[in-house]
Amino acid sequence: xxxxxxxxxxxxxxxxxxxxxxxxxxxxxxxxxxxxxxxxxxxxxxxxxxxxxxxxxxxxxxxxxxxxxxxxxxxxxxxxxxxxxxxxxxxxxxxxxxxxxxxxxxxxxxxxxxxxxxxx
Length: 120
Description:
This protein is mainly α.
């Protein structure tokens, strides 16, 4: 397999001044791991669909199942993952449990992702 010339350096020159800055600003391994885990949650189209519904309204599992044409069990499973990752919150009202976005960060993350994929 032929290597592309524009993907590797022709020589090996370490730029110590840049590495010093990087080493001083690079987050701890645990934070990097947590961030990677958070982005994994966004790697499922069903969870993204649920979040888009929740952009518009606070809804119960029954409503989500109906609008997304899925079983309540499948929706519940995905909501559990979203809740564990602090992306959604819920409240009980009588026999129903209503879900909503945990905070505006969720909308910001999705909107930033959309902006990125729509760039030329």
